[in-house]
Structures are given as structure tokens and as C-alpha cells.
Write a structure and sequence with these properties.
This protein has helices at 2-23, 51-66, 92-102; strands at residues 33-40, 70-76, 82-89, 108-112. With 121 residues, it is an alpha+beta fold. The chain has one domain (2-113): Alpha-Beta Plaits.
Length: 121
């Protein structure tokens, strides 16, 4: 059951991103780079798998879009005190600005490139 809710949330997040982009009356090219954002949560990161958790995630997505920032996915340590989030954004400053709006901490931001082992066939 949890898997279905996560897939549904992911689908909703994607549809929101596409709908918001499609509604833009201006079309301009923005160079997006990929980043890993390291965050610390001393009191643990707890996002319930409920409607409340979905609403929280959608708020983050909405605020991110204001700064052309796209949250791709996150990895959370087993103790829930650290997360490593993958973002596409025009700059680290855009990620910091968006994080400030949502109250999310930012410890470090690293620009990264994708290394896919299946590329070497």
C-alpha cells in the first residue's frame, strides 16, 4: 500500500511540474544543472505517508518552481537525520533561495554529473 501512495505522489509531482511549465506565458531557455543537496535534521526528518505528507511535499514542489528548481528525488539515512536530495536548478543560489522559502536546511550543495553504468554497453 505504501508503494502505491509513493507512486501516486510522484505522478502528481510530475504532473504539477508539467502543468506549471505549460501555463507559463513566456518561454525562455534556462540552463539547468544537476545538484546534490546535503541536509541535516537533528530532530529527524519525518514526512508521514498520508495526505498531510503529500501536501507538505507539494508545497515544497510549488515553492521550488518559483525559482526554476526541480526536486528530483531524495535519499534519507536510516536514522532520518540526514538527507541527500537530487535537484535540477539553474544555480546553487536558486536552491538556497527556494530552501529558505520552505524552511529546509542546506548544509552543502554539490554540482554533479550523471555517471550511468549502462552507458558503457
Amino acid at each position: 500500500m505504501k508503494t502505491i501512495k509513493v507512486i501516486t505522489l510522484a505522478t502528481l509531482m510530475l504532473l504539477m511540474s508539467v502543468a506549471t511549465f505549460a501555463q507559463s506565458s513566456e518561454t525562455k531557455m534556462i540552463t539547468m544543472k544537476r545538484y546534490v543537496v546535503e541536509r541535516s535534521f537533528p530532530d529527524k526528518l519525518l514526512v508521514p505517508i498520508t495526505g498531510e505528507g503529500a501536501k507538505l511535499c507539494l508545497t515544497v514542489i510549488s515553492k521550488n518552481l518559483e525559482d526554476n528548481v526541480t526536486w528530483v528525488t531524495s535519499y534519507v539515512t536510516p536514522d532520518k537525520k540526514k538527507s541527500f536530495c537530487i535537484y535540477d536548478a539553474p544555480s546553487p543560489e536558486a536552491i538556497r533561495k527556494s530552501a529558505a522559502k520552505t524552511g529546509l536546511p542546506v548544509d552543502n550543495i554539490f554540482e554533479v554529473n550523471v555517471l550511468d553504468p549502462y552507458f558503457y554497453k
